[in-house]
């Protein structure tokens, strides 16, 4: 937090090293979120590119209402949502993309390959709004308040989407989760 | 653990594993950084080319703008307070206590323009987290002029010429929140006089404190009236001289206190086609005379301006932290007449957690101007307090060339400190 506030302050005075440092610090988190939301690595890279370039354009006048990481992550989510509205492509279940995007990420034994497959498929059944909230909260560790602010909806709406999504996941997985 | 918690845990673990293996490629990094740097540099260049200082100078002759500027009150650069210090005859402790919980204030009254005409105005302020100064301020004058502070900058919208004038410093508001610390300072001033009386309208007993200051804008005198029952200030008058002579520059007749204020009060809307003009950097002519002694300041021989500024400001902060007042006066001649006692009081009156602990960064010179004796520059500094918060101070440094030798002195803060939240 301390470093981020300092980096944002430096950006206001034209410090290009600060911009580089911010990218280096958060690039993997941004890409990971973008891949999870788009389920396509190439699209995810484009999203990260566009979000970070937009961020750089505004950086001199940046007024953060949340922390820097939260700001960047919610920008990724907003960008993906806008693309989704425009292209309507992410609502389609595309297992080829899924497999491709995770093919270079061999999973550790903590969760078996079969369990991963079941979770992935269950997530894809959820309406996009519910899936997005679950991803932002459990994948990117964003608070409900931050998510609500970035989406322009109430915190109650976000929490409801989250709860409904989890309930549905539970029903789908139907007791397959080990207790 | 219930089923909902269990599934949360499983999903979290699933994503943690996925996240840990995602890495950007070198090609992607190169592309993103190249494009981002280009966008950033273009944006910063555009911002710089927006500056039109000559236009600002012309506009400042406009009476509307001057009147709005007159509403910039009470920016008491308190280390420039004059007068020998001692305890006041009026016990102010109860007022200090009464003000402790209020972080919002509304004031209504009149402000005088340069032609001596009184204009109605209202002012809303919200304190920073530490209750040491105002963070958000909005002043509305009844002819439509609006001045406000946002994110460390000050803006003045003048509807008559559809222009927003701005400067990258907090120059509106109060550098001591109208709370305990300000009252303690008044209480400490030997120049403060106390008058007791009855308000004929309310029948309440009231106490009036009279005091005189010199601040960054010149000579000031004040009268603050307290309701003896509630202990809260109820009236505030400011004159631009030391002896409360003639019509006041600012007269607040109504003050209302709030525990907090909503954000909406500080939202300002103005036409999207309004011109934007940045104010040029100046210092009061009255202080230029104090800055020309070759014995003061530090040598800037062989140093770039940025290097000289950094060296000077580090010494200033070090002198403050060490309470080395002789050194401080040499670096900052505008406080030459202020006593050790008062400087020490000012530093110790700050809560311990708000005192300067470390100079985190001295930023680049972001603005330049000229006084009669040479170039002046403004520089932002980031300070870490003992409590761990970050504070931005913007400072003005005067460069001189005396006898063929280059040197610089610290003039003083550029506006008020700004807490970085």
Structure in words:
With 179 residues, chain A is mainly α. Chain A is 74% helix and 0% strand. Chain B is α+β, with helices and mostly antiparallel strands. Chain B has two domains: 264 residues, Lipoprotein localisation LolA/LolB/LppX (outer membrane lipoprotein receptor (LolB), chain A, Clam), CATH 2.50.20.10; 136 residues, Nuclear Transport Factor 2, Chain: A (Roll). Chain B contains ten helices and 19 strands. In chain B, strands 7-8-9-10-11-1-2-3-4-5-6-12 form a twelve-stranded mixed sheet, covered by helices on one side. In chain B, strands 13, 14, 15, 16, 17, 18 and 19 form a seven-stranded antiparallel sheet that branches. In chain B, a hairpin with a 2-residue loop joins β8 and β9. In chain B, α8 packs antiparallel against α9. The longest helix of chain B has 24 residues. About 10% of the residues of chain B have low confidence. At the A-B interface, α1, α2, α3, α6 and α7 of A face α1 and α2 of B.
Task: Outline the secondary-structure elements.
The complex is a heterodimer of chains A (179) and B (421).
Chain A: H1 2-12, H2 16-38, H3 41-58, H4 68-87, H5 95-102, H6 113-125, H7 128-139, H8 144-151, H9 155-173
Chain B: H1 3-20, H2 26-49, H3 53-59, H4 63-70, H5 93-98, E1 104-112, E2 118-127, E3 134-141, E4 146-150, E5 153-158, E6 163-167, H6 180-188, E7 193-198, E8 205-215, E9 218-227, E10 233-239, E11 250-258, E12 275-278, H7 285-288, E13 298-299, H8 305-322, H9 325-331, H10 340-349, E14 356-362, E15 367-371, E16 374-385, E17 390-402, E18 405-413, E19 418-420
Parallel strand pairs in B: 6-12
Antiparallel strand pairs in B: 1-2, 1-11, 2-3, 3-4, 4-5, 5-6, 7-8, 8-9, 9-10, 10-11, 13-18, 14-16, 15-16, 16-17, 17-18, 17-19
